[in-house]
Specification:
Elements lengths: L2 H13 L2 H7 L4 H15 L4 E3 L4 E3 L1 H29 L5 E6 L7 H11 L4 E6 L2 H10 L4 E7 L13 E6 L12 H4 L4 E4 L4 H13 L7 E3 L1 H8 L5 E5 L3 H5 L4 E3 L9 E7 L7 H20 L1
Parallel strand pairs: 3-4, 3-5, 7-8, 7-9
Antiparallel strand pairs: 1-2, 5-11, 6-9, 6-10
């Protein structure tokens, strides 16, 4: 007696129709007929009353049908228990969405995570940032990962990498550890002309962010260097003038927050992290991976 024979008898007992039961169990009608006959021979009694119009189970057939259902249910339970003992009972599925910018991070981290958690299933979706937000709110994804612009405080002094800021070596600004927009208010600004329209545009935008666009003095690099010595002016010039500025012993470059990244990884989840260890660990791995990558750049 084989388990598939029990499944075939259950199908016949439920449907009470040989052809339909044969189709459900993917065998021919004649094969099903032989299977039932073999069961009756093994058990030693008639299980099915056949007629041209219907199929009826005998009293013994009804008892055997209940036995078959119980046995098959116990078999499925045993399979499940064995699988859980091998792979663990945590068959979590995590859906993670990420933008194209994060395509070098998320698949790598997920691979590392799955190496230690083979029972967890991960579905990855590359999406636009707006779709990430919507799907996270709707609960269609568990984690969203994207790159977003870091917001600078309104008091921060920020200039692009292509610009430098400098003052005379005895300037009062050098007495502070950091330079704020408020500290720049009382000092005149000198802007150095650049042959690059792109650099000149950034310089003008920076002056505007300091509220110096209308009061800024403008000149070439030699005029700027000459006027800034022994004065309380502060100056901004293009990076192409950095060597000339560095050669002046009476002038000091001011360090601003230009070295602070203006973009950072944003990892969000709609789960309560303390309640889902897998989500919490995966989020932590993504954050740690990006921190290590940022330091290596």
């Amino acid at each position: 007696m084989r388990f598939e024979q029990l499944e075939q008898f259950v199908a016949l007992g439920n449907l009470r129709h040989f052809r339909q039961a044969a189709e459900q169990t993917n065998i021919s009608t004649s094969a099903l007929t032989r299977s039932i006959q073999t069961l009756e021979d093994e058990i030693g009694c008639e299980l099915v009353k056949r007629s041209t119009r219907s199929v009826r189970l005998t009293e013994q057939g009804e008892l055997f049908l209940a036995y078959c259902k119980t046995t098959l249910n116990e078999l499925e339970s045993a399979k499940k228990n064995i699988k859980q003992s091998l792979f663990g009972s945590d068959h979590t599925k995590v859906v993670i969405g990420y933008t194209q910018q994060m395509s070098s991070v998320v698949p790598v981290v997920c691979g590392q995570f799955l190496a230690h958690h083979p029972s967890v299933k991960i579905e990855m979706q590359m999406l636009d940032e707006s779709d990430l937000t919507n799907k996270l709110q709707l609960g269609e994804i568990d984690i969203s990962v994207c790159m977003h612009s870091a917001e600078l405080a309104s008091s921060d002094v920020y200039i692009p990498d292509q610009l430098i800021m400098f003052v005379a070596k005895n300037h009062p600004l050098l007495n502070n550890d950091t330079v704020t927009k408020q500290a720049l208010v009382k000092y005149p600004m000198f802007g150095c002309l650049s042959q690059s329209r792109h650099i000149q545009h950034m310089l003008n935008e920076t002056a505007d962010s300091f509220n110096k666009a209308t009061s800024m003095k403008v000149g070439n690099i030699n005029e700027v260097l000459s006027n800034i010595k022994n004065s309380e002016l502060f100056a901004i010039a293009g990076i192409e003038h950095s060597k000339l500025v560095a050669q002046e012993s009476d002038i000091v470059l001011i360090k601003t927050n230009k070295d602070i990244p203006t973009e950072q990884v944003l990892v969000r989840t709609n789960h309560t992290l303390s309640e889902d260890a897998n989500i919490k660990e995966l989020v932590s791995l993504i954050e740690q991976f990006e921190q290590r990558r940022a330091l290596s750049v």
